[in-house]
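Data deposition worksheet. Section B asks for the primary sequence of the deposited chain exactly as it was used as input, without tags or linkers unless they were present during the calculation. Section C holds the resulting structure in token form. Section D is free text for depositor observations; keep each observation to a single sentence. Incomplete worksheets are returned to the depositor.
Section A, Depositor: J.P.
Section B:
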Amino acid sequence: MNGAVGPPSAAGGAPEALEIRLRGDARRCLDVALRAVDPERLVAEWLGREPARAHGNVIVLAVGKAAVPMARGAHAVLADAVSRGVVLGPGGAKKGGVADAAGAAGSGIPPGLRLFRGGHPIPDEAGVEGARAVLGEAARAGASDLILLLLSGGGSALLTLPPDDVPLADLAVVTERLLKAGAPIHDLNCVRKHLDRLKGGFLARAASPARVLALVLSDVVGDRLDVIASGPVSSDPTTYGDAIATLERYGLWGEAPGSVPAHLEAGARGEIPETPKPGDPVFDRVATVIVGNGRRAAEAALAEARRLGYGSALLTDSLTGEARDVGRYLAGIGRGGRDAGAPIQAPGCVVAAGETVVTVRGPGRGGRNQEVALGAALELDGVYGILVAALGTDGIDGPTDAAGAIATWTTMARARAAGLDGGQALARNDAYPFFRALGDLIVTGPTGTNVMDLYLTLVAAAE
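Section C:
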């Protein structure tokens, strides 16, 4: 990880030794956390313990932000047992969706697998083409084949195959509006599952009678299999009626393009088949394993913090809420540690994993982790010896090139010295230019993994 640009100086002065040390320690903890959820290693380790060779021909279908490294991990163990497959990851596409041979080779995907790159978080035609390829491979599989499905976060947007009566453009509009409304992932995916031909268990139906083994890198709170990548091989407890209620709850039902309410209402009337529900025999030959998640990353960060001399505690692996409010909460935990020795005594490190939401109110640029950090910075103004870091483990925070940001007791003083208004930046959802100007962004580039977001609160010992 490249870490935050900097370190910055306090307002008008040289960087304080304590702040430099805290920033370095935070970066080391985050680096270790990312290495602990390396998808290639996690898949290879699991398959090494539970070999899939005994199932005959193996068809690899890798979908999500970690699709390429997960496919590499499978190939490292299974090698020539893999007969064919599709890798569908993010990052833009060659013309027509599928990468050419040179592009596939350059990505490092194993031989025999076709590579597609689709849009995220808004689905695009390249992703649809990749989804068609996934469906085609699943439908071709026979009873003696094993489909090795490698799922990771981002799969909901990438694996998009809307029904014939819903244009992709309409689905994209609904997706974007739900994101801007701050809909949590389970609400967003409830709607997606009922506007798609693969999500919500439909891929399992297409794959029958083949056996399916899904290895999953979880990016959702609670590791809910029906929510991760919209559960393409998992039973779906939600209904068309739930999807309608979700759009109504966010005030989007009347704004949705006409094809969307028409399709959902037809489903609610029983004119379109529901997603497969718990107990459906289509899942009898499906097995699913979580190979990595946010808790694994958080525990690795904790272990590194202890090695560095901090008393450490895991706050939760299910942190949710409005990003700015979560930032204030994390700053408050730091203040409690400094002033009262609770929930942890200084020097201390409190780690959490989870996923916040941002209700977009302004025209600015940023991401949920940058907004967490900005909320923390406002709370920490002048409160000596506390650092809060927020990191998207995929290395991508909103539509920016940053993974997150760091806030300390000097952030707001340095902002004022630079003529920046942190409160105004928060009101405009404009955290990215604020932190970029201060050198407080965390920039990693795409990490190849995705296990929600990671939050560190470091409290220095009293001096």
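Section D:
The two ends are 30 Å apart (CA to CA).
The mean pLDDT is 92.
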